[in-house]
Amino acid sequence: MPNHSQSSDTKKSDPTQDYLWQHLFEIMPIFFPGFEDMLVVRTWAGIMPYTPDGIPILGSVPKLEGFYLATGLCGGGLGTGAVLGQLIANLINHGERPGLFDDTSITRFSDKKD
Ligand SMILES: Cc1cc2nc3c(=O)[nH]c(=O)nc-3n(C[C@H](O)[C@H](O)[C@H](O)COP(=O)(O)OP(=O)(O)OC[C@H]3O[C@@H](n4cnc5c(N)ncnc54)[C@H](O)[C@@H]3O)c2cc1C
Questions:
Q1: 100 within some domain
Q2: Which whole number is the average pLDDT over 13-38?
Q3: Is the pLDDT reported for residue 7 higher than 50?
């Protein structure tokens, strides 16, 4: 089993993490021969919040006044998050609503389109 040098944000022992690490280190050599001899210095992971159509969900929510969504940035949120956050801030603070929000509304998943 390879050494796992824990980074500063993962120093606490956690049964779930320990379980996952154990199984990860068991299956990794299947895909990456030689992995068992490697020193793992740092790891990271997370959920990519893909929407069904691959388009973010941005804008206000009908019937929930004052509630805004800016999520579902799929696999490119690090690149697009800042500007989309700015657009949401402009909507909340100044009522600016670019045409883009027509395509990103949450209603696209609930409105019946006959
Ligand atoms: C391993 C990895 C590598 C990536 N690399 C890149 C890259 O190189 N470039 C790039 O542009 N993008 C990259 N991404 C994608 C980027 O991280 C995402 O697009 C971005 O984080 C999505 O932002 P988001 O706000 O839509 O969702 P998130 O950042 O996932 O935020 C959603 C938030 O909602 C919370 N949440 C979820 N469910 C609930 C609930 N029911 N109630 C309350 N809170 C809830 C979660 O805890 C989370 O804080 C990567 C993602 C991963 C996982």
A1: yes
A2: 88
A3: no
